[in-house]
Amino acid sequence: MEKYMYKNGKKLRCGFTTGTCAAAAATAAALMIFTGEVVDKVSVRLPKGEILSIDIKEPTFSIHGVRCCVKKDSGDDPDVTDGILIYADVNLDDSGEIHIGGGKGVGYVTQKGLDCPVGGPAINSVPRKMITENVQRICNEYGYNGGVNIVISVPEGEAAAKKTFNPQLGIVGGISIIGTTGIVEPMSEKALIDSLKVEMQVIKERGYNTLLAFPGNYAEKFIDNTLGIRSENSLKFGNYLGEVLNFALELDFNEILIVGHIGKMVKVSGGMMNTHSHTGDFRMEMFACYAGLYGAGSSVIAEILSCAATEQAVDILIREKLKNKVISKISERALYYINKKADNRIKVKLIIYSNNHGILN
Q: What values do phi and psi take at 7, rounded to 5?
C-alpha cells in the first residue's frame, strides 16, 4: 500500500529507505532458505510497527546461500539513491547470532561521531535493528535457533556516494544504509537537519571546537576566492541557521564564524533563524527601516522597497552614502539574534558579503 503526504498543497508519494530495502532483501532471503521456494514479495515491520510489503528482485539460490535484492524507491523525494539495487546475501552458520556485514558499495566508516563504529560498514543502528528483528521473526517461525550471516551490498553504491555527504563525513567506498522510520518523506526537512547534526558531530570528533558555517554554494565560492579559510571544520547549513546554533550548543562548540550573503543576513537581522522564502521575506523592509533611521527620505525608502534583489538595495545605500551605517546596524542586529539563539555561550563572528561589493561589514 502506497503512502502519501501533503506539502504546500501538493500530494506527494512517500518512498522507503535504504534500511528498509536491506531489511526486506535479507528477510526474503531468509524466508527462501527455510521454505526452499522463490519469494517475489515480502512483508517487513518498520521501526514504528507499520508493516510494509516490498517487491523482491533477483531471488537466487546458490551453494553459498540465497541472494535477493530490492530496488530503492524514494517516492517523490529527489534522492540520488532512487532506483539503485540493494542486495542481501544470506547463509546459515553455527554462531548462534545474526551477523550483519557490508559488501561492495556499502561505505565503511573512517571517522568518529557517526552512528557506526570506525572501521565497520556504514549500516546505521536503526536499519541493523530492523534487519535483525525481521530476520529473527522468520527464524522463529521456522524454529531455527542457529546463526545467520547477512552481507548487504550495493553495486552502484560507490558511484552514488559521490553525490552524497558521505565523503565529507569520512565514509568511503559507498553509500550508507540509513533510515530512522523506514519511510522516505518527500523533501524531508528533518532528513536535511539530521544530516547537519551528523556532519557537526564528525567535525567535533576531528578535534575542532570552532566551526566555519555558511549557507550554500555561493558563500562557499566566496570563502574560497576571497578568504581562503575553508577546511575540515566547514559546514554548509542551507537555511537552517537556528538548528545549527542549537546543535553547536549541544556539541559544545566554542566559536562559530558565520559567512553569509547580505540577502540571507538581512533576514537574520530581523530574527529569522530559518531563511527560506517560505518562512517569510522582509529583506527590503529591513533595508528601508534602517535607511530611514539614518536619514533616507521617503523617495529613497520607496525605491528600496521596490527593489527585487538585495544587491540593488546595496547599490542605493552606496549612492546615498548610507551603506556603512545600515550594514553596521544589520550586522549588529543579526549578531544580537544569533547570540540570543546561542544563549551567549558561543563566541560568534559574522562576515557579510555582497556579490558586487565583497565584504560589507
A: -135, 125
